[in-house]
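look at this record:
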Amino acid sequence: MQIKNSKQIRAKINCFTLSIALFFYSLSIVQAEDWIYKVRKGDNLWNLAVDHLIDTSYAERVQKLNAITDPWHLLSGSNIRIPSQWVRHYPAIVRVQNLQGNAQIVDDGAKQPHQLKVGDMVMPGDTVITDEGSTLVLDFLDDSTIMLGENSRLKIDKLMILENTGMSESQLNLLKGRLETQVAPSKGTARQFQIKTPVAVTSVRGTDYRVSAEKGDLSKTEVVGGKVAVKGNSSDKKIMLPVGFGTIAEKGKALLPPIKLLPAPDISEIPKPFVQVPIRFSLPALKNRHGYRVQIAKTEFFKDILFNKKIYSSTIKGPDLADGDYHIRIRGFDARELEGYSAQDKITINAKPESPFLVLPKQGEGILLEDPVVFNWSRQKDVSHYHLQVSNRQDFSELLFDAEKIDANELAMTKTMAKGKYFWRIAAIDQDGDGPFSDAQMFRRIMPAPELEAPEITDNMLTFRFRNGLPGQTYHFQMAEEERFNKLLADERNDKPEFIIPRPSQGGEYFIRIRTIDADGFAGPFAVPQSIDVPYDFSWLLTLLPLLVLIAL
């Protein structure tokens, strides 16, 4: 029976027909140009025709094609070649397995498109259209798929199951955009397609490849598994693309000879896990690459793709995804924008709840050994408690303090901590578990500034001495007329435990303070200011003594 259009197909498909289709699709799929039948004991051409062919009259054609002398007695184990168009076939269907964004379908014979959704069936004669930023995955009954990229238009020209053969004929017409064939690795055999574009036709046998139909009457083919035969519409010449090569077809021009595809990029430096969304990371500098295509899916087979974007930079800005495990696939493309081999890895996103903002201790702050360390951070909404970690290593490979359930947003730690650098971070915890830790913040435990001894005062100089500090430390000394040190009389640095400065010309109360500077440049706080009394200098009165004598005479 001849089926005229997809509306008739939809009207006639019933549970029985669908069960038959599922059964035959579960068989191994091979090249649909010729069916090779292996003769079994007792076979003859007439039984073969009854079981498999469109009509029994085709038995004579098979006999002539294979030069069979005795059609009633076939040699068991021998092979008979039968053109696929002579074999009875059923119209097949494909299913929308995944859809990110929006896509429409134009039914065969219909004028207006309507929205597609996951689970919808697509049949021969239908045209599928994807929107900007959208990706559609069509699932065939043998678990093979095609993934249609954004702004694409694909017509299903022919999709047939050849009855009782395990064979199929699939002819797709990519009018615009880009598609990728994806073969289910568990099946061991690749589904077969013939894909047309406005300027080229690709024919494959068990392979994994990509095809595009682009502006300017360009078509690109990239082979990452098996072999692909490509023929441009402007010539009868066909080239065979081996694995790892691509070509470009352009209207009115000969096909480019095979072009070697880029190797898979190094993605070993991708963050693990991602603790912020939208995700952001860097890839190796472009160099011989023109950019990268980044794809993210929930499973390693990429049938449920969530993100599919071409990026002309080595800085990748990804999507805002929920916490969980994902799979990422990245490949570079060259100056011709032929895409190369993909690197694939599993990634984890743990960005919720967001980490609190660290308040105290501030970055680089010095805290005296005699003082407790008070940690303070911002309070988060819908958070049950907080997780605080302290380490003397920036990578937190060793923990000095690890408090997993802190109810408040502040904690005073009295644990003894020696002089040195420390790092702290906070994570918030909600009903779904720990969120990511904040960026670490460094603080120091420091010794107090040295105490100044009573100054040595001479007629012209003031000398201040103090206890020597740690190796590599230097000292910063200041002297002022008032306690706020707004007007400095002295501001000096020294690597020795003493300062010698000119004696002020006026006597009275003055203020001094000192602090230490570590070898790495960290300046500790000034010690509490001290006051000193500088005696008034009355030596100038001696110059008036002769005058006083004359007055007395």
Remarks:
- Confidence is low (pLDDT under 50) at residues 1-32, 184-191.
- Residues 15-25 form the longest helix (11 residues).
- The chain has five domains: 6-88, 90-260, 280-344, 358-446, 456-534.
- The domain at 90-260 is CATH 2.60.120.1440 (Jelly Rolls).
